[in-house]
Automatic annotation (TrEMBL):
Domain of life per record: Eukaryota
PANTHER family: SCHWANN CELL MYELIN PROTEIN-RELATED, SI:CH211-171H4.5-RELATED
Residues of the Ig-like domain: 269-363
Protein's recorded name: Ig-like domain-containing protein
InterPro entries, sorted: Ig-like_dom (IPR007110), Ig-like_dom_sf (IPR036179), Ig-like_fold (IPR013783)
């Protein structure tokens, strides 16, 4: 009806009385249409800072639902800033671009998901600045209230477990094992790792990988995709640094328990340890081991022996919450008098192409 009446006004000459009558019919039609629009959603929702939040919402409309351009607005006293526009994303204000999306919960759903909420704000849905819940329903909007762990007395439920210190090799990667617990009602939260250098410098952001310090972009990853696990890998270790995990700048291990992990980066690789050569007798078969600890399970060191002709097998062991891994080469060695007083060497070659060597002198007892 709007379009038809508008064309008549544009193409045909009317007296003032006739024009007033047409405008009256337009206004009545508009008011009647507005009555057929309705939006249903909660008054408020609590969310942790930097978490994702879903606002459940349904609506009714006097037109085909497929033609509806759903819009969500941020409440402010002047203007109608859009945080979501289903048909024209360019209308969304910069701070909410790529952070909002509709949830497909049925044809009459206007449920909105907002990523990485940062502060308490009011929002409302609609299709235009004239047809929306704020105009139709006496200033109806929803408050997304950003809370801290202390508000509900749940700070003690947040616990992060990780080793206090890890030794890493310069140029290699380092895995930091980490697990955590959280309140039962906490959901859709993010996982961060921070450096204590500076003002909580972000080195890892699980939901927005680009939102980290430039020097850490593309260098940090979650290592386990399991519930309540915050283990990360840092590639190309450069300098010694202290790190701590959390879900935002308020809820983290440093603020709650003054806990952090010191990653000590060394230029010299660790030396492998040779064991099992203490009691060698001619023609007796023993197990000799060469083992070295490291921090990069995706690129473990390579172990090589100076003697050949004996069966070997390798073992790679996770040292778990202690931090680090152990690479071990096990050789089944049959002693021969010809090896007496000779050197037995094991070399460990690391991903940064540095090698460390351990050498011992073999003493074999004759029968």
């Amino acid at each position: 009806s709007f379009r038809y009446l508008s064309l008549i006004i544009y193409d045909t000459f009317y007296t003032d009385v006739e024009l007033s009558l047409i405008m009256f019919f337009i206004e009545v039609s508009s008011d009647e249409d507005r009555k057929e629009w309705s939006f249903s959603f909660p008054d408020s929702i609590k969310a942790l800072k930097n978490s994702d939040v879903t606002i459940p919402c349904t609506f009714t409309a006097p037109i085909d639902l497929s033609e509806v351009n759903l819009i969500w607005y941020k409440y402010q006293s002047i203007g109608y800033p859009q945080i979501f526009n289903s048909k024209d994303p360019s209308q969304v204000i910069e701070e909410y671009r790529r952070r909002t999306s509709l949830l497909a919960n049925g044809r009459n759903s206007c449920s909105l998901r907002i990523k990485d909420v940062k502060e308490t704000i009011w929002f409302y849905p609609g299709i235009s600045k004239d047809i929306n819940s704020y105009i139709l329903n006496n200033s109806q909007n929803v408050q997304v209230k950003v809370t801290g762990c202390s508000e509900d007395g749940s700070c003690e439920a947040w616990k992060f477990t990780f080793p206090p210190i890890i030794d890493a090799l310069k140029g290699s990667c380092v895995d930091i094992p980490c697990t955590f617990t959280h309140p039962e009602d906490a959901k859709d939260f993010n996982c961060f790792w921070y450096s204590e250098r500076g003002h909580q410098l972000k080195v890892f952001n699980n939901k927005t990988q680009s939102d980290v310090a430039d020097e850490y972009k593309g260098r940090t990853f979650l290592t386990r995709n399991t519930q309540n696990d915050c283990s990360i890998q840092i590639t190309n270790a450069k300098e010694s640094e202290e790190y701590f995990p959390g879900i935002n700048m308020d809820i983290n291990s440093l603020n709650l328990k003054n806990k952090k992990v010191k990653v000590t980066v060394e230029d010299k690789p660790p030396e492998p340890l040779i064991s099992g050569t203490e009691n060698l007798e001619e023609k007796k078969t023993v197990i000799i081991s060469c083992a070295v600890n490291h921090t990069c399970p995706s690129h473990p060191p390579t172990l090589t022996w100076s003697i050949t002709g004996h069966p070997t097998m390798e073992s790679h062991k996770d040292l778990s919450i202690l931090g680090g891994w152990r690479m071990e080469s096990i050789m089944t060695y049959t002693a021969s008098y010809t090896d007496d007083k000779t050197a037995l060497q094991c070399a460990a070659t690391f991903p940064n192409n540095k090698t460390s060597v351990n050498k011992i002198t073999v003493h074999i007892k004759c029968k």
